[in-house]
Structure to design on (800 residues):
């Protein structure tokens, strides 16, 4: 008999559950559903010990009911299997607006009261538990960081499955059950993440058990997967490489039996796959099991309200009974619905869950919401780090030779991986080699469980044991990375600059999670930082053209909390090593590192680089000639390519106008520009003025959009004299210098800017200015004629 036939004919099967198990599991589920409804509606009378009155109802009804019963139903059955097989299991709620399901189970497990003692397991605690939900001064309506057991808020849909896989990597004993909402399943990130099963190694990874929850509707529309034929649905997931099991129905008694049978089968299959692989040391790519759970939206809720269908329809998505405050009919219907769960049978006189139901939950750290993997900082071990100074580029004279900074970084990351082969991974969307990080492959190859061809042996660097995660989906990779660090491990992500925007909103959501966790939740232990290397930069995308030129991710980052975001623009390889070492050791940040992959001039020896990066900003004395006096102009820069163009401009000016006093300031830590009152890395007014003066012109050559520097410095004393140059959305297939000229970040335009801004040069600099204009014309013409920059540009070195 096929699986589908088995599931639709449970009367032919030997029962999985005893009669007492079925009774108690259904009672436990009723209690969950009662608590879910109470969170949506009640601020008093939590156990309906008196008739329901308007004053017991919240003034604003906020939250979501639709997915709660299906999620709680799944949870009850997971509890049974955790106890039976001593499973190490966490739960990811894809439809995070179904948070009442997670919260109710946490409360019933006793975990919520342990974390928040004022929400005690009695009537008074239950009243507070209900009132706080979606309430000012309380908690949000999703699986926020305040939710014990959560590693995924689920506010922005699409990332649950990738988070689940990230949690499973290198956790061989862990099962991650991911409930995927059928609305969520329509998002691009979720649709792509079904392919993550091609990257899961049954020997050293855990397992992911997806439960696709088909309740049929989104906010006000049907869902696609619920409206295709069963055959098409089955073929879809088999095509993804899964082994789908279907559990369908609305009769609780039958559904409990079906779900118990299917989930137990899934657990046994997972264990069999892992046992075979671990005992033999080899495996064919397995077809991991998954569950398709089809239940009514708002199951067990009101069938109809005011003559309109609710249960099994989109009207069950949020608040099913809309107006109990002013409608006596709605109030009566709400009371009847909540009493249908028979709370007096579920909770004792004190308001505590009855003992026989408490016994349904696992104990201690096996409780889903107490599992330490969902508070990954508890399990986090610091990386064993090589000495980054050992990878130093020898620099005897600043700006005398070129090196690819990311190539140097790759050798450092290789040895970080060698020392941390069970808790460190590198992520990149088919760009690790392109970004000059290929040395990493000497430590570990790319993870690959799918088919291999003979030609793959010739440089493809594929391995079932690989620790470099490459898939052409920034969403999936970022989701893996987040799930990996949220469960206590470490990682590093590299991306082309223009396309890191694909994960803008994922960064936003993770930064919000970190902010809450770090500032408000002492019980959440610090986790490893998200480390993002932004490379293949705008200024060297002259070969790919306009579409690949967008440095705006930095603007996105600066909008988030200063407590959790950092931006570094190391100007050379030694600075990049220092910054990377710092970031890999840090916790509870998103660290953004901007460094190009192409060969560039090297300026600082390792000792100077460490000092410069520790300060985050500083004067380069060897590039300045103000002799510790007040300068005529400050040349400032942030970013490796803007730094080289600024230095070239300084060299021109010092040669042609030697009396001009120039101070050269380089910025590594972008947030040093902010006031200390606005950012913990910000400079004091005195420190800032000592670098940039109070009244002299500042020509600031910036890697990204100029407006960002103005945003960071607008409160500074000398802001009116800041003249910032950055990317202006001018570009095509250009030479490097031509692209810089188009955006006026080149050496010639910078030098002209100095002449225009320094009053004493208005007359004496006229001839130099004309020469600079000629150089611009000649350089562009040469590029258009020859397709490359002039030799003196390509081969330029710091001459002083």
């Amino acid at each position: 008999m096929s699986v589908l036939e088995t599931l639709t004919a449970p009367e032919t099967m030997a029962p999985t559950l005893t009669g007492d198990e079925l009774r108690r599991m259904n009672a436990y589920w009723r209690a969950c559903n009662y608590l879910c409804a109470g969170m949506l509606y009640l601020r008093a009378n939590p156990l309906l010990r008196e008739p329901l009155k308007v004053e017991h109802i919240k003034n604003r009804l906020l939250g979501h009911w639709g997915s709660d019963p299906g999620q709680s139903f799944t949870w009850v059955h997971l509890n049974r299997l955790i106890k039976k097989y001593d499973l190490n299991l966490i739960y990811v709620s894809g439809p995070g607006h179904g948070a009442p399901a997670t919260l109710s189970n946490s409360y019933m497990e006793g975990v919520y009261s342990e974390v928040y003692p004022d929400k005690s397991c009695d009537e008074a605690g239950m009243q507070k538990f209900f009132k706080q939900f979606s309430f000012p001064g309380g908690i949000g309506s999703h699986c926020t960081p305040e939710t014990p057991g959560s590693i995924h808020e689920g506010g922005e849909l699409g990332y649950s499955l990738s988070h689940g896989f990230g949690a499973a990597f290198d956790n061989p004993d862990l099962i991650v059950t991911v409930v995927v909402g059928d609305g969520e399943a329509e998002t691009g990130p979720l649709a792509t993440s079904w392919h993550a099963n091609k990257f899961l190694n049954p020997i050293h990874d855990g397992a992911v058990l997806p439960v696709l929850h088909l309740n049929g509707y989104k906010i006000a529309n049907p869902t696609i997967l619920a409206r295709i034929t069963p055959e098409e649905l089955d073929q879809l997931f088999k095509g993804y490489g899964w082994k789908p099991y279907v559990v369908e129905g609305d009769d609780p008694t039958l559904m409990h039996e079906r779900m118990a049978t299917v989930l137990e089968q899934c657990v046994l299959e997972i264990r069999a796959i892992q046992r075979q692989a671990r005992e033999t040391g080899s495996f064919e790519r397995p077809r991991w099991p998954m569950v398709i759970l089809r239940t009514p939206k708002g199951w067990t809720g009101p069938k109809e309200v005011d003559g309109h269908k609710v249960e099994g329809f989109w009207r069950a998505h949020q608040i099913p009974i809309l107006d109990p405050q002013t409608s006596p009919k709605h109030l009566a219907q709400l009371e009847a619905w909540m009493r249908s769960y028979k709370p007096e049978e579920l909770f004792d006189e004190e308001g505590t869950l009855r003992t026989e139901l408490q016994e349904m939950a696992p104990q201690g750290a096996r409780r889903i919401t107490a599992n330490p993997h969902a508070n990954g900082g508890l399990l986090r071990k610091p990386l064993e780090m090589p000495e980054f100074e050992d990878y130093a580029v020898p620099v005897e004279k600043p700006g005398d030779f070129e090196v690819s900074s990311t190539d140097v970084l790759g050798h450092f990351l290789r040895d970080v991986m060698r020392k941390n082969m069970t808790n460190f991974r590198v992520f990149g969307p088919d760009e690790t080699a392109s970004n000059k990080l290929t040395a990493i492959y000497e430590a570990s190859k790319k993870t690959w469980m799918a088919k291999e061809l003979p030609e793959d042996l010739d440089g493809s660097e594929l391995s079932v044991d690989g620790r470099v995660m490459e898939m052409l989906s920034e969403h999936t990779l970022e989701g893996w990375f987040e799930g990996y660090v949220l469960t206590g491990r470490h990682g590093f992500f590299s991306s082309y600059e223009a396309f890191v925007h694909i994960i803008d909103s994922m960064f936003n959501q993770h930064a919000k999670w970190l902010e809450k966790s770090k500032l408000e939740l002492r019980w959440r232990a610090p986790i490893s930082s998200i480390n993002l290397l932004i490379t293949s930069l705008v200024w060297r995308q002259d070969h790919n053209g306009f579409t690949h030129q967008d440095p705006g991710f930095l603007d996105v980052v600066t909008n988030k909390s200063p407590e959790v975001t950092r931006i570094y623009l190391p100007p050379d390889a030694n600075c990049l090593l220092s910054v990377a070492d710092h970031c890999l050791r840090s916790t509870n940040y998103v660290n953004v590192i901007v460094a190009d992959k192409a060969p560039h001039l090297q300026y600082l020896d390792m000792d100077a680089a460490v000092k410069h990066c520790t300060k985050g900003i500083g004067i380069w004395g060897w590039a300045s000639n103000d002799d510790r006096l007040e300068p005529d102009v400050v040349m400032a820069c942030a970013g490796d390519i803007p730094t080289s163009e600024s230095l070239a401009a300084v060299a021109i000016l010092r040669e042609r106008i030697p009396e001009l006093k120039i101070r050269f300031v380089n910025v590594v830590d972008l947030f040093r520009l902010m006031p200390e009152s606005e950012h913990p890395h910000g400079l004091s007014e005195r420190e800032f003025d000592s670098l940039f003066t109070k009244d002299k012109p500042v020509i600031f050559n910036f890697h990204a959009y100029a407006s960002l520097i103005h945003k960071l410095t607008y409160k500074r004393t000398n802001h009116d004299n800041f003249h910032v140059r950055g990317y202006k959305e001018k570009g095509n297939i250009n030479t490097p210098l031509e692209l810089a000229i188009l955006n006026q970040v080149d050496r010639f335009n910078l030098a002209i800017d100095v002449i225009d801004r320094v009053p004493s040069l208005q007359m004496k600099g006229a001839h130099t200015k004309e020469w600079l204009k000629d150089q611009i014309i000649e350089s562009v013409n040469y590029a258009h004629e020859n397709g490359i920059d002039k030799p003196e540009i390509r081969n330029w070195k710091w001459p002083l």
Observations:
- The chain has three domains: 3-357, 398-600, 617-794.
- Residues 97 and 142 are 5 Å apart (CA to CA).
- The two ends are 84 Å apart (CA to CA).
- The longest strand covers residues 174-181.
